[in-house]
Design brief:
CATH topology: Jelly Rolls
Number of strands: 15
Oligomer: single chain
Order of helices and strands: EEHEEEEHEEEEEEEEE
Largest sheet: 7 strands, antiparallel
Structural class: alpha+beta
Radius of gyration: 16 Å
Amino acid sequence: MIEILSYGGKKIVEAWVPDRDIWVPRLLDEFDANRNSVERSHKMGGRWENSYLPVDLVPSIREPMRFVRDFAKKELGITSVVLFEPLSRSHNPHPPFWFNLARPGERTGLHDHVDLSRLSAVTYLACEESSGNLYFRMDGEEDLEIAPEVGKVVIFDPALKHGVHENRSDSDRISFAFNLFPFPLPTEEI
């Protein structure tokens, strides 16, 4: 199932990555097995926003990332490239994909992903009802909210401001987010 929404003249896509009953549990197992190797970038609102692992420790991330790349090219006419390593270590030492873990009572602050990326996406690995809706905010528009569902991917313009409401469930919400980049890649040092 695929739903294409319009928000302030920009497209937001909700889709379900095929075989989610296979790759989601596998990716959660890979994430759980490597929690001691996680690198974190920054805290917002008292919690770590992004948790990074190298692709060789979480190889199942390739499935949703490639799905988004292929879907965007075929259905949206957007050509992009999947990166599994940082675009530039001097600019940002982390790969362009990360996990977000929100414990009960935690939220993700309003932000965007405009840093050279062509598309942004988030997919849900563990969530319950009331674990916090993704929301988009734009001047002159009412917030657009999207409920999380395991295996769902939300694809959006990286310039769209977005956040996640408070996790009001009794369980952790775990999502995996990533950016895709223009093809061909920029050649100058960033």
